[in-house]
Amino acid sequence: MMVSLEIRGRIVSFPRAQLERAQALAAAEAGVSSGLRDLALVLDWALNSSRVVALRRSEARELEQLARLHQQLDGIAAALAELRGESRAA
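Below the sequence we write its predicted structure tokens.
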């Protein structure tokens, strides 16, 4: 099953399992950073909703940083890098 997020004005779909891992990692580190706490809450909302959930810029940055730091989020990192490349080309 795929979960859709709106990131920088684009809809991106991720496998549910990847976002569950990202949400768990963000929640585990939420005591260190309010940005990670916010990301964990937004990802939880996205995982429990059939709607497309929009990430704010700060949440998108936190997701990107989390994906760079954790190898098990390589799919998310690749999708965000591709999205970043598209926005630079536009």
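Helices lie at 16-28, 34-47, 57-69, 74-89.
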